Amino acid sequence: MSDQIYEVKSPLMGTFYRASAPGAPALVEIGQKIEASDIVCVIESMKIFTELRAEKGGVIKEILADNEEMVMKNQVLIRVEAG
Length: 83
Prior knowledge:
Elements: E1 5-9, E2 14-17, E3 33-34, E4 39-45, E5 48-53, E6 58-63, E7 70-71, E8 76-82
Antiparallel strand pairs: 1-8, 2-4, 2-7, 3-6, 4-5, 6-8
């Protein structure tokens, strides 16, 4: 993997959501430019919702989990090309 690519990983086991609320548009799409600290997805565990934020700006290259998919701790969810 290129040094220019970084991964957004799940900090805990839970349900992956691409949107901040049911019926809301996805927070990010492939090819979208993001800024550092932008919310890129949400993980729900035991009715607690955790927003995952980009560590730096860049472009979304891959979204590796499906909406409402159960994900594991440290699972790679999104790949971002830094820049």
